[in-house]
Amino acid sequence: MEGIPVEAFWCLAIIGMCSFVIQVCNKMWIKPRRIRSLLLKQGIRGPRPSSFFYGNIQEMQGIQSMAMEKARSQSQNQSISHNWVQYLFPHFLEWSQQYGPLYMYSTANKQHLYVGRPELIKELHHHKSLGLGKPAYLAKALEPMLGDGVANVNGPYWAHQRKVIAPEFFIHKVKHMTGIMEECTIRMIRGWERRVAIGGGVADITIDEDLRTLSADIISKACFGSSYSQGKQIFAKLDALRGIISTTRFSLGLPNLRFLPTKRNRQIWGLKKEVRRLILEVVNDRLENNQSFGKSDQKDLLQAILESADDSEAFQTNRDKDRFIVDNCKNIYFAGSETTSATATWILMLLALHPEWQERVRAEIVEICGDQLHDYFLDMDKLRQLKTLTMVLQETLRLYGPGTLLPREALAEIRLGDLTLPKGAYTWACIPALNRDTENWGPDCHEFKPERFAKGIYEACKYPQAYMPWGFGSRRCLGQAFAMLELKVILVLVVSKFTFSLSPEYHHSPVFKMTLLAKYGVRLLMRKIAK
C-alpha cells in the first residue's frame, strides 16, 4: 500500500464492500421481488415464499415427505399403479389443484413459473429464439456430466453445436445403422437364450443392466466407431457421476458448493477427469487412424465433431478444442444410451404386465415380417407398417417416458401468448403430469391403453401439443429418430424370440435420477419361443 493514503485505501474498501452488498441485495431480494411483482400483475398466483432464504423449499419437502409416507403405507398393495407422479412430484400436483395449471413458486432466490396450460405449452413449442434456454444453475450442477455440450449450453454456441450434431441423426443417415442395432441386440439375446437353457426353459432376468449394456454398445459403434469393450468404462464413470449428482436436490437452485474439497466433490472431480481421459483415448485413436490412412471413411458422429473442431475458428487453444470434443461426446454417450435403455426396460415391463398386447405385437411381427427379420430391418416401409408396436411405444412414452421435467430460463423478456415472461424467470413443465391430465386424455389416463394412439397422436388426446416425450421447440431431442428406430429393432427381436411375464420378485418403484428408472430393477421370467 506504499504511496496510497490510508484514508483513500479505506474509502476504496468501503466502496467495494457497498458494491458487493448491493449486488447481493439485487440478486437475493430486488430481482426476485421484481419478477414476482410482474407475474402477479398478470394474475398469476401461487404459494407465498415461506422463507427469505429458501422460498417454498421447506413446503415442497413437507409435501414430498407426506407423499412418501403415503407410498410406504400402500406398499403392501401388490397391484401396479401407473400414477407414480403423485409420489415423485407431489408438490406440482397439489399446487395445481390449489392455484390452477399456471402458478408461480420460489426456491431460494429463483422464481419459477409452472406451465400446465396446453395453449402455453403450444407457445413454448413454437418459440424458436435463443432467448429461452437451459437454466444456468442447472447447467452448472450438471457440468461434470455434460460440460458445455449441446444439451447444456445456450445461445450461439448451442446453435453451432446443434448444427453439427443434428444432421447426423437425420433419418436418411440413421436408417443405415440398423445393421449395428441388429448385431448388438442378437448378441444380448444369445446371452438370454443361454440363461433360459441353463434354467430348464425359464430364466428370471433383471433386464435393466443388459439393456443398458446393449444401448451403450449400439451408441458406441454407431456414433463413435468403437465397441462397447472400448467404451464401457466411459459409461460406467458417467453412470457413477449421475448417481452422485442425483443424490442432491440440484433442481431446487440451492447454493452449490462445488468448489469446496468435500468428499463428494473430490469423487466428482476424479470421475470427470477419468471420463475426459477415456474419451480422449477414443479421439486420439481416430486421429491416428486418420493420419495413417488419410481422411476417414467413417462418416459417423465422432468424425463430424472432429471435422467441425478443425474447421471452427472459435477455438483459441487446443484445450478449447479438446473440451468441445469431449463435452459433446459425453452428451451423446449419456443421452444416447441412458434414455433409450430406460424406455426399452419400461416397454418390456408393460408388455409383460399386459400379455394380450405382447401377443398382438408378436402376431403383427409374424404377419408383416415372417422369418425374414434381417430383410425387414433394411426396409423402412415395413418398419412403418408395425402400427401396433408403434402404439405400444407411444403409450409407454406417455406413462414412462425417460424425460420428466422440462425447465427453461428466460434469457430475455419472452412473450408467450397473452403472457409476458420477465427475464430471469424459470418455466417448468412436468411431462408425466401433463400425460395424466384427465381433461386431455380422459378418465382412463392412468391406464395402459395403446389403442388410444390407433389414429396417431393428433387423435389420441384433446391437446396433442401437450404430448412431448422428446421435449419441445428447437431444443427437442436431436436423437429422436435414432432412438425410435433402435427401440423398434430391439423390441422386434426380443418379442419374436421370447415370451415373458413379470417375476414374482419384481417390485414396482419408479425413481427419478435425471431419467426415470426402476429403483429395484425390472425382473422378467423369460421363455424362448419354439420355432
From TrEMBL:
The keyword Ribosomal protein does not apply. It is a single-pass membrane protein. The keyword Cell inner membrane does not apply. It comes from the Eukaryota. Transmembrane segments: none annotated. Coiled coil: none annotated. One of its GO terms (cellular component) is membrane. Its main location: membrane. Its cofactor is heme. InterPro entries: Cyt_P450, Cyt_P450_CS, Cyt_P450_E_grp-I, Cyt_P450_sf, Cytochrome_P450_Monooxygen. Keywords: Heme, Iron, Membrane, Metal-binding, Monooxygenase, Oxidoreductase, Transmembrane, Transmembrane helix. Heme binds at residue 477. It is found in: Membrane. GO terms for molecular function: heme binding; iron ion binding; monooxygenase activity; oxidoreductase activity, acting on paired donors, with incorporation or reduction of molecular oxygen. Belongs to the cytochrome P450 family. This is Cytochrome P450. It comes from Turnera subulata. The lineage of its organism: Eukaryota, Viridiplantae, Streptophyta, Embryophyta, Tracheophyta.
